[in-house]
Structures are given as C-alpha cells and as structure tokens.
Specification:
- The chain is mostly helical.
- The protein has a domain at 35-86.
- The protein has helices at residues 20-28, 37-50, 55-60, 62-68, 74-78, 82-85.
Length: 86
C-alpha cells in the first residue's frame, strides 16, 4: 500500500531554501538553539563571511572555512600568530 502526501503534510520552508544544501540547513540547523561554544563560533565566522554574499555561497564553502579556521576551534584561532592571520 502506498500513501499519498497531501499539501497539509508538506514541510513549510522559507523562500530561500531552494536547493538540497539550503533545505538541509533550514530543516536541521537554522533557528535551532545552540549551547555549544564551538558551534556558536562557527556560526559567528560564517555570518561574518556572509556579509555581501549569499548564504548559499557560504554553505557551499563551509568545509573550506572549517579547514581555514582549524575546525572552528576558538582556542586554536585565538592563538593564531601574525603569519597565520595574514
């Protein structure tokens, strides 16, 4: 037996969630309370990078940011020297 979904069963999403990456972010992360300092630091970095860019661009480059910022570890980043910062 197959079940048919009705429009009432459909997930309601914001207009910007238009591709798989954005849909996953919307459904799993956006608007979810965070209590983990490292995850909060990650979103601080990503939000700062987003200025002037689309969130879609940031999500696509998220893993590159993770590498550049040593896994978004605030203790490691706080110890960056001048060479690493440049």
């Amino acid at each position: 037996m197959t079940s048919k979904s009705s429009p009432a069963d459909a997930v309601r999403r914001c207009h910007w969630a238009t591709n798989d990456l954005a849909i996953h972010y919307h459904d799993q992360e956006w608007g979810t309370p965070l209590h983990n300092d490292q995850r909060l630091f990650e979103f601080l970095i990503l939000e700062g990078a987003q200025a002037g860019l689309s969130w879609d661009t940031i999500l696509k480059k998220r893993e590159n940011y993770r590498v550049a910022f040593d896994g978004f570890d605030p203790l490691v980043v706080s110890r960056y020297g001048r060479k690493k910062i440049q």
